[in-house]
């Protein structure tokens, strides 16, 4: 659902940019409370993993494909504030290095694919976790539902922006019906990927999953006729050591997906591209400012073999996203440490 330049006019794109910048600024402050010495490195990995999985377009209908948006996955794994930052990092790297998503539309993409998906998904996820039994299975079930709903919500958000600042004259009802319809199907794929990923991490390190914190109610002791919380004990199933093994496993998985599996991704246009072509939304699309980038369109310029070119581009993208994301989250974590020391 990467919006290119030319779909939304300049004033609305600028306004969306202001919204996105504000959301990132607020998320930077909120992420300080979510990140600690163990989870900060994982946040960079989550961004790199989402970048890798977004390269894997899957077919959803005749001539249409979809890919992970990742807002729900990021919010559940590392927290909603950090989740917004993860998606912003991914979109920034895709726009600058790979000419994927317009540069003037970067604010639109962060707002739609980052802010909307994270807010909708995490709100629904927390609501479901509160009413479902406090078990790990409830976390995976809630992650499925949250991811499923977040994708058509993002499609509806794009339609709203198009209604205000669309550059073509296409009936709004047709755009809304087409966008939400196809993205409900894409949402099913998003939900499956999110559920499987969250379930895999919860199975090995539930203590590192932000959305799984507090699953077990504290033990109560009666002291002097009153019930008080007992001192928490570290459960045997949630080791408190270094997340190094999980980090290495996640990085290897991301590299394999981006460097090898991505070659077999569907070549059909994604949901937005298909709707834009069918309804005429793309009649005023503009060339990407980074169209001449050495990595444009997820290939390495000068490498003729398609499999090798795409694989190298994917590996470079994972590495660059990991480096930028980890650096950014390390700075956020350091600022929290300095604030706590000063206090």
UniProtKB/TrEMBL annotation:
It is a multi-pass membrane protein. The keyword Transmembrane helix applies. GO terms for cellular component: plasma membrane. The lineage of its organism: Bacteria, Bacillati, Actinomycetota, Actinomycetes, Kitasatosporales. This is Cobalt ABC transporter permease. The chain crosses the membrane at residues 7-28, 40-60, 72-98, 110-132, 144-164, 184-204, 246-265, 311-332. InterPro entries: CbiM/NikMN, PDGLE_dom. Keywords: Cell membrane, Membrane, Transmembrane, Transmembrane helix, Transport. It is found in: Cell membrane. One of its GO terms (biological process) is transition metal ion transport. Residues 244-334 form the PDGLE domain. It comes from the Bacteria.
